[in-house]
Amino acid sequence: MDFKFKIGTKVYFGKNAVLDNREIFKTYGNKALIVTGSKSGKMSGALKHVTNIFEEFGIQFDIFDRVENNPTLNNVKEGSEAAIKLNADFIVGIGGGSPLDASKAIAVLAQNEIEPINLFENTFSNKPLPIIAIPTTAGTGSEVTPYSILTRDDIRTKMSFGNEDTFPVIAFADPSYTESMNLETTVDTALDAFSHAMEGYLSKRSTPVSDILAIEAIRIFGNCINSLISRNISYDIREKLLYVSMLGGMVISHTGTTIIHGLGYSLTYFKKIPHGRANALIMEEYLKYNYEVAEEKINNILSAISISSIIEFGEIINRLVPNKVVLSDEEIEIYTSITMKQKSTLYNVRQVEKNHLSNILKKCFLGGIQND
Ligand code: NAP
Ligand code: FE
Questions:
Q1: How many domains does the chain fold into?
Q2: Is the per-residue pLDDT at 91 higher than 70?
Q3: What is the rounded CA–CA span in Å between residue 67 and residue 60?
Q4: What does the alpha-carbon distance between residue 22 and residue 49 come to, in Å, rounded to a whole number?
Q5: How far is the CA of 63 from the centre of ligand 2 (A)?
Q6: What is the signed CA dihedral for 98, 99, 103, 109, rounded to 10 degrees?
Q7: pLDDT tier at 345 (50, 70, 90 boundaries)?
Q8: Which residues of 117-153 are buried (b: 16+ CB within 10 A; e: fewer)?
Q9: pTM for this one?
């Protein structure tokens, strides 16, 4: 057995995690930039909790609430200018993966005189500002990963950077902050969390410890499927989903994601399909593709979610997120070429070749499966 395991983030999980642990904010300095989206911070209630705490402790703060979905390089540059102007001691990211990932980029850019494009070099002269991450979606697990995924218009896709120093130092994971998410985003993001666990489990970089976390995340996700299909989401289910998301984040911190994410980035970039939903649309063909080299592990996944076959799995995913996407041969060629350049997503358990990816996309989207 041969593996490394480290999560650079201290997690406080549970209702009132922020308010009950408010003293922690003081330990990171006197000036903070809050990084969030236009509505996630406010609607979740987390922004108000944090600003009340800052007022109570006399921590000076500014709010950058212009993080876009799937943030671009320009967007994080703008955020870093706000951090530099304030001379911030630390960053508080509030939101889904987009604001949390933007926080990581802003934390690095605030401390290093580099352009956003240089973030992808992954080595920085100065350590980033400390990041406190408060998720308001249950999907990316970004609160416990070092990754920041940014949209790169120059190469027409999304790409991640991150190193040991870009783990948030603290994560406050309170399921009640996810209650204001709409039902569609709840389902989409839950599927992202599940995808992280599944892809990590079927990655060449999986380890004994990441496998335990992955299969537990998959099992708990299985307990949420009926609620997700009926769109009947109680607090108890939200708590489970946030836990799945965190476990999935811990998995991919060690394994990275694989071809579902690699291909899904193109669906998001070109077709504006939300990240988790884009992943979900590829899952059934991904399992069929990998079955010949990972039969035992795929059977473990199916049994952990009490599903008897990949076909039945596909039917369930289709009930969660009906597939309305149709791609042309030309689009499939572009998407596969881009994905083949995303080396970090090619650690798939089955050795990936370009024609494999185009076959997966053809089976998913050529001619389209219209299920309205
Ligand atoms: P998101 O893009 O952060 O948010 C999706 C939408 O939901 C936004 O409109 C957002 O509003 C809204 N929202 C979020 N929380 C809400 C709440 N509690 N109440 C009301 N509205 C809420 O979605 P995401 O799926 O969490 O993140 C996706 C991004 O994360 C992608 O860029 C993806 O590539 C990345 N990602 C990162 C990792 C990682 O390890 N770091 C892993 C997987 C994916 P606002 O616009 O106001 O925020
Ligand atoms: Fe993801």
A1: 2
A2: yes
A3: 21
A4: 9
A5: 26
A6: 60
A7: confident
A8: eebeeeebeeebbbbbbbbbbbbbbbbbbbbbbbbbe
A9: 0.97
CA angle 170, 172, 173 (to 5 degrees): 135
Protein residue closest via CA to atom 2 of ligand 1: 69
Helix (H, G, I), strand (E, B) or coil at 12: strand
Average pLDDT over residues 23-49: 98
Residue 349 sits in a domain whose CATH number is 1.20.1090.10
Structure tokens of 305?
Answer: 């979610």
Residues in the ligand 1 pocket, defined by CB under 6 Å: 37-40, 43-44, 69-70, 95-99, 101, 136-137, 139-142, 145, 147, 149, 158, 177-178, 180-181, 185, 189, 192, 275-276
Examine residue 3 and state whether it is found in any structural domain, yes or no: no
Residue 123 and residue 84 share a domain: yes
* Last-in-domain residue among 140, 158, 178: 178
Testing ligand 1's pocket by substitution, the residue of 64, 101, 277 carrying the most ligand atoms inside 8 A of its CB is 101
350 touches 292 (CB < 8 A): yes
* In a domain? residue 27: yes
